[in-house]
Write a structure and sequence with these properties.
160 residues; alpha/beta; five-stranded parallel β-sheet; two-stranded antiparallel sheet; 6 helices; 15% strand
C-alpha cells in the first residue's frame, strides 16, 4: 500500500502563526502604521488630531501635490531641521509618494533616531489622492474622484 503526502498550496506551505504570535505581530503593525482614511478622518474633525503629518518628499514633489496641513520636511533635511520644526511630545505621521516608495519609512527611521514618536501612513500621497481626499498643488486646491478599486463609491467609511 502506497501513501501519498497531500499537496500543500503556497498559502499554507508555511503554516499560520499561533494566535498569540499573530496578536503580537498585528498589534505592533498598528503601532507603526496609519491608514490613509484614518488620517483623513482625524484631520477632517477640525480639532487637533494629536499628531503632525509630515511630507518627506522633495520640493518639486510637494509642489506637484501635498496633503493640506502637512509639514514639508524632505528626509535628507530631517537630521538638521526636525528638532526646530517639530515637537517631540507630538507624534509624527510620515508619508511619501506611495506603496512603491520607502521614503516615508526612511523619514520615520530618521525621526525615531532623533527621539520622535512616529508612524508611517500606508499608501502615501498616491492613495490619499486615489481615495478622493483633497490635496494642494502649486496652482491651488485639487481633488479627484475616488478610485472605486481603493475606496467605497457611496460612502466615506469602508467599514474596515
Amino acid at each position: 500500500m502506497t501513501t501519498t503526502t497531500p499537496q500543500v498550496n503556497a498559502v499554507l506551505r508555511t503554516p499560520p502563526a499561533s494566535p498569540a504570535a499573530a496578536v503580537a505581530h498585528f498589534s505592533a503593525s498598528l503601532a507603526f502604521h496609519a491608514d490613509v482614511s484614518d488620517v483623513a478622518a482625524a484631520l477632517a474633525d477640525g480639532g487637533d488630531p494629536g499628531f503632525v503629518l509630515l511630507d518627506s518628499r522633495s520640493t518639486a514633489s510637494w509642489d506637484q501635490g501635498h496633503i493640506p496641513g502637512a509639514v514639508h520636511l524632505p528626509t535628507a533635511l530631517i537630521p538638521e531641521q526636525a528638532e526646530r520644526l517639530l515637537d517631540k511630545a507630538v507624534p509624527v505621521v510620515t508619508y511619501c509618494w506611495g506603496p512603491g516608495c520607502n521614503g516615508a519609512t526612511r523619514a520615520a527611521l530618521a525621526l525615531a533616531q532623533l527621539g520622535f514618536q512616529v508612524k508611517e501612513m500606508l499608501g502615501g500621497f498616491e492613495y490619499w489622492a486615489r481615495e478622493g481626499f483633497p490635496y494642494e498643488t502649486w496652482e491651488g486646491p485639487a481633488r479627484q474622484a475616488p478610485d472605486t478599486l481603493t475606496a467605497p463609491a457611496e460612502s466615506a467609511d469602508c467599514g474596515c
